[in-house]
Amino acid sequence: MQLSDHYPYSIQGIDPIQLTKQYGSPLYVYDGATIRRKAAELQYAFAGVNMKIKFACKANTNLAILRLMREIGVELDVVSPGELEMGKIAGYDASQITFTPSGVDFEEVREAVETGAIVNVDSLPLLEWFGQTYGNSKPCMIRIKPNVAAGGHTKIMTAHADSKFGISVLLLDEILEMIKKYDIKVIGLHQHTGSDIKDAEPFLKVADILLETAKHFPDLQIIDLGGGFKVSYLPGDAITDMDLLGKKISKRFRTFCEEYGRDLQLWFEPGKFLVSESGFLFVTTNVVKEDPARNFVHVDSGLNHLIRPMMYGSYHHILNISNPKGEPKHYNVVGYICETDTFATDRELPEVRQGDVLAFLNAGAYGLTMSSNYNARFRPAEVLIDNGEAKLVRRRETMEDLLRTQTGL
Ligand SMILES: Cc1ncc(COP(=O)(O)O)c(C=O)c1O
Ligand SMILES: N[C@@H](CCCC[NH3+])C(=O)O
Known about the structure:
alpha/beta
């Protein structure tokens, strides 16, 4: 909620309306100070154990953000060769990158292994291929599905019995048999429960399951508990209590390490936690329609730029930063796409006028990375504000970008 905390609205002293004039609207803007603060918060909460953060960069792959992560000692979790390449371009050594695929072509796994990244094997057929291909010459990690349902929306729960992700913990015997057969070198166990998980309880439950499972693997160096911490979407929103979680998980983890007889590394792979609150999508009001049923605010953006409200029913707080003292009114805030693309329903906002700039909060994670060119619209530019300076870190697309891959022009 940083922007509203600093009325008149600014990010590190920079006026966002001015930024939309300079770089055009709509515009994604990220506050580097928030990213630094969030990473420090996580590091502090787990200061008592050997903890490593692997940023799940599907949340935001802007190279400037990846470089910032690298600068503050945060490593990477990637899900595709494309993300892996971006990590390398941002200056990461492949050994700092974990590849956590989901049912990919095994050749992608070969590419990642040969480049030096560690792979989280997510199926028995892939484990068999890994064993046949590498024996014990390359290490791997295994993604376990603990069969626990948790997350802010069914679409973002990834560890329940019906989820496609990982190898069910119920197949432990088969996993162990395969490891023995090919002498596979398993150095880590991984699980990722889902996204937007508020309570400590599911995190503790999956940690228990993974650590119990870990007892069957003698050569582990890493326990990776994934991401999924819930951030604040509206003022006063309940979020994951990181201090509490840090204390409880660290205690459980230390006990495990004592029993295991060795100190292991504890990894987390947050996406949202690190970048969601750092990001804003600034849009401009094209037209206000006072309909007998509803007042509609149509903005110069849509589900092509921020799909979360339509995909998960996600709440994104909206501020009218052009008219903050306006009389409160109720609006449906909608986009310009030829689909139903509602950002907010019956939302109270200070009176919105044509041309007013609205800010969507929590746009730093899964905003631009999930955007598209639907309706032949351009993706917005991105600006990173860090150390008091605003830098354009992605230009707005042009017609040329839209046509680049079409043939027969
Ligand atoms: C394997 C894995 N790790 C980490 C994350 C990051 O999740 P979040 O952004 O909720 O922290 C995801 C995304 O759901 C994921 O699939
Ligand atoms: N894209 C989701 C979170 C990650 C899901 C991928 N496993 C969201 O915006 O909430």
